[in-house]
Write a structure and sequence with these properties.
Elements (H helix, E strand, L loop, with lengths): L4 H4 L5 H9 L6 E2 L11 H12 L12 H15 L9 E4 L1 H13 L5 E6 L4 H8 L3 E6 L10 H7 L4 E7 L11 H13 L3 E5 L25 E6 L12 E4 L2 H14 L5 H13 L5 H18 L5 E2 L7 E5 L7 H12 L1 E2 L1 E2 L10 E5 L4 H19 L1
Parallel strand pairs: 1-11, 3-4, 3-5, 5-6, 6-7
Antiparallel strand pairs: 2-8, 7-8, 9-10, 10-13, 12-13
Helix pairs in contact: 3-10, 4-10, 5-6, 5-9, 11-13
Bound molecules: pyridoxal-5'-phosphate (PLP).
Length: 386
């Protein structure tokens, strides 16, 4: 069969491969996917069940249920003081992922360039390529807390650049962009007439009482920001596949046209569940407290293992662990760790080719399992030292 160059150009994810391999072992501790083990609250589950049982299972408007869009617009008004028109500036999508994809597909033409900060969520690069675009990567390093400079942006831009993708809080580093970086980026985007796709799906999983800041709040930025958010991480609703985008009305209209030809709409029961999440569970911080405890535990435990180190993430449920001192490449490390100790992690290289010295751990299992994982990792490292 003839398969398109576009499809053949997609690289299968190493993270998924390790996840699939991990399923072979009965006693595996799987720290690969960013898929929370915590259940959505009962209110959310009830809302989804009620929608199904009462026949709210048909198509919705391509942009999604107006009631959900109103809830989202209100929450942005309350949180950020933004005025968002629910009719024209909110688009409900099949997870944050479809929001990212539709936005990229509507913004770029063949050969257009998109600046992406590494380490990055690997799907950005693939999505840009799937839409005929060219990813321009800005690499950052641990010594500089994975932050970039204006000079790096200036070096990456060309007359084909149409957008920058940012991710704060970041997967895989857990880094949160500070206000001065967002000011600098906003200034850069306005001066160069760029769109900023701001992936904020971890915006409420922030620890130590820190507050999330968004580029959309900067003067002149609401119309050039595509804010992508999702129910997946905050409300543990990954399988509901429900996300949304806040953006300029012209872009939302075009995304809606495209949605009609892709998925028609997001699942209706999930949209009702999302209304319950936003209207009834917004202030429930119990998940954040749980992840913060896990973060404290795993971060300390990993730093106590010889040859391993990591920064303390400010947010998310990921740890980006430096394995350089082991002398092993991340792929070798991940495969051997799985094979010998039945702990599955993601090789850092999937977040950009400069990150061969890292692995990513998702603390999406409880402290009991994390503690077993740490013991096994420690045993694995001892076997290397001997
Ligand atoms: N953006 C980032 C940075 C992610 O890590 C993920 C999922 O892991 C997504 C977007 C998409 O999540 P979903 O499609 O489940 O909303």
């Amino acid at each position: 069969m003839k398969i398109s160059k576009r499809a053949l150009g997609i690289e299968p994810s190493l993270g998924r491969q390790l996840f699939n391999m991990a399923q072979k072992y009965n006693d595996v501790i799987d720290l690969t996917l960013g898929d929370p083990d915590l259940m959505p609250s009962e209110k959310i589950r009830n809302a989804a069940c009620y929608a199904i049982m009462s026949g709210k299972t048909r198509y919705s408007a391509n942009k999604g249920l107006i009631d959900l869009r109103k809830n989202i617009a209100n929450s942005f008004h309350n949180e950020y003081g933004l005025s968002v028109n629910p009719d024209t500036e909110v688009m409900i999508t099949v997870g944050g992922m479809e929001g990212l994809y539709l936005a990229i597909a509507c913004l770029i033409d063949d050969g257009d360039e998109v600046i992406i900060q590494a380490p990055y969520y690997a799907n950005y690069v693939q999505m840009v390529r799937m839409c005929g675009g060219i990813p321009k990567i800005i690499y950052t390093d641990e010594e500089n807390n994975f932050s970039f400079t204006k000079k790096q942006l200036e070096d990456a831009i060309s007359d084909r650049t149409v957008a920058i993708i940012i991710n704060t809080p970041s997967n895989p580093t857990g880094r949160v962009y500070d206000s001065s970086t967002l000011d600098m980026l906003a200034d850069f985007a306005i001066k160069n007439d760029l769109i900023v796709i701001s992936d904020e799906v971890y915006r409420s999983l922030i620890f130590d009482g820190k507050i999330h800041d968004s580029i959309i709040k900067r003067e002149g930025m609401q119309k050039r920001t595509v804010l992508v958010d999702s129910m997946s991480k905050r409300y543990s609703m990954t399988g509901y596949r429900l996300g949304y985008v806040i953006c300029d009305s012209e872009l939302a209209e075009n995304m809606s046209k495209m949605q009609e030809n892709v998925a028609a709409c997001a699942s209706l029961p999930s949209q009702y569940a999302a209304i319950a999440a936003i209207s009834e569970c917004f202030d429930d911080n119990s998940n954040v407290q749980e992840y913060e405890q896990r973060r404290n535990f795993i971060c300390k435990a990993i730093n106590e293992i010889e040859l391993l180190s990591c920064n303390k993430p400010d947010a998310t449920f990921y740890l980006f662990v430096n394995i350089e001192k082991t002398g092993m490449d991340c792929i070798d490390f991940a495969y051997k760790l799985l094979e010998h100790e039945h702990v599955a992690v993601v090789p850092g290289v999937i977040y950009g080719d400069k990150y061969h010295n890292y692995i990513r751990i998702a603390f999406t299992v409880g402290i009991d399992k994390l503690s077993i994982a740490v013991n096994r990792i420690s045993k694995f490292i001892n076997s290397i030292i001997k």
